[in-house]
From TrEMBL:
This is SDR family NAD(P)-dependent oxidoreductase. GO terms for molecular function: oxidoreductase activity. Belongs to the short-chain dehydrogenases/reductases (SDR) family. It comes from Microbispora oryzae. Keywords: Oxidoreductase. GO terms for cellular component: membrane. Gene3D superfamilies: NAD(P)-binding Rossmann-like Domain. Transmembrane segments: none annotated. InterPro entries: KR_dom, NAD(P)-bd_dom_sf, Sc_DH/Rdtase_CS, SDR_fam.
């Protein structure tokens, strides 16, 4: 697929590292950012899928397992202007049935890895007085979801990390992305398909557009779709009534 470059903007010429670039939201974000003239570093474990994304975006592939290879990945990536911390895994079911190792895996990929990548890349951004940190969290991190306690906790942790870091950095933007349900292999991979008819899953390209818009406009947060801001705000402002509504309408 040919890539058309936008004339200008925050992403033109920027070096962007996208984790989880082999699939879903990460792959769609790679396509959208390449169209803006970004120079991409694409990472994940699936070489074939990453090379397919690289072929259409001109990106450089770096294989890495985020459970173990974060420091090495940061070193190999070199100078990075924009980090899109997108890679993530889910698990759905009663907590007591969660298999051994799954808790550690979710925490490692969804929370520890973006924190450690940030720790490795931030000094370079600060020294250059320029940078953007984007974290793909989830609405689950803002409101909590039945039978996704560990997943929701990792995303809530990511949101708190980003919110706190924002006070600490200067010259570096921080964006959190809170998608709802997105049509990607995520559900299949977590072992339980998305079983509801509403809300209907959004295409990954919609999240990718929101990420690009947030980077170009320096947005602190973006909900996809935008109406998800309402339950997030309600849960914060009126947690009691929110829980009543969530119990009534939030069943899978
Ligand atoms: N889909 C949704 O409804 C939804 C909603 C809200 C938030 N999100 C979040 O959006 C992000 C992207 O998810 P998606 O929907 O695009 O799912 P996806 O299609 O399953 O993509 C997940 C990506 O994470 C990477 N990944 C997983 N484990 C990894 C590991 N150990 N090391 C390196 N990379 C790893 C995968 O790469 P490899 O397979 O190449 O390793 C893949 O590229 C996740 O953080 C997810 O929590 C998704």
């Amino acid at each position: 697929m040919a890539v058309t470059r936008a004339a200008d903007g925050a992403l033109a010429g920027a070096r962007v590292l996208i984790t989880g670039a082999s699939s879903g939201i990460g792959a769609a974000t790679a396509t959208a950012m390449a169209a803006r003239g970004a120079r991409l570093v694409l990472t994940g474990r699936d070489r074939e899928a990453l090379e397919a994304v690289a072929a259409r975006t001109g990106g450089r592939v770096l294989l890495a397992d985020l459970r173990t290879d974060v420091d090495d990945l940061a070193e190999r990536a070199g100078q990075i202007d924009v980090l899109v911390g997108n890679a993530g895994e889910g698990w759905c079911g009663p907590l007591a049935e969660m298999p051994a190792g799954a808790v550690e895996r979710l925490v490692a990929v969804n929370l520890t890895a973006p924190i450690r990548l940030t720790r490795a890349l931030l000094p370079g951004m600060t020294a250059r007085g320029r940078g953007h940190l984007v974290y793909v969290a989830s609405i689950a991190g803002a409101v909590g979801v039945r039978e996704e306690a560990v997943y929701s906790a990792t995303k809530a942790g990511l949101l708190a990390f980003a919110e706190s870091l924002r006070y600490e950095v200067s010259g570096v933007h921080v964006t959190v992305v809170l998608p709802g349900v997105v049509d990607t292999p995520f559900f299949e991979r977590r072992g339980r398909p998305y079983g509801r008819s509403r809300p209907a899953p959004l295409p990954a390209e919609r999240v990718a557009r929101a990420i690009v818009g947030a980077v170009e406009r320096g947005r602190a947060e973006t909900f996809v779709p935008g109406w998800l801001r309402l339950p997030a705000r309600l849960a914060g402002a009126a947690p009691g009534p929110f829980r009543v509504l969530a119990r009534r309408f939030g069943r899978p």
